[in-house]
Write a structure and sequence with these properties.
alpha+beta; 2 helices; globular
Amino acid sequence: MHYEFVPGDEIVIAPGRTVKRIRALVAIPAFSVSAGDVGGYVEADKNLRGNAWVSGDAQVSGNAWVFGDAQVSGDAQVSGNAAIFWASRVGTENGTFTAYKTKDGGIEITRGCFRGSIDEFLAASEKKHDDRTHLEYRLLVEVAYSRLTTPKE
């Protein structure tokens, strides 16, 4: 087994469905994950395939890694060398910011009803939000970009 559940760190996502945070027991060099690092949340052992850490009914393969407090559930698929960055309680509505690599190697952002490229997201944020909120989003984009594009040894 490549992980363990972190005692007491769980979230109820729907009636009868709970996801639990996991911690690496071994290193995953492709994502600079060391033994002891915490990952995202999973619902059950059956949701994990190989080195991938996700939740729900996701189908997973390869060296996938889910960063931060991410939850991947339902019919979502994370495969290959996929990576997701997720942050909660951000922006004026305390919503969820998600960034992930697309099939063509780009990065897509979702936040609320928005979905698009980094440039599209930042342009929309600058138009809609005050300077403080826009700065928060720019900083999140920088962290997500760093996490999703930094070459791993």
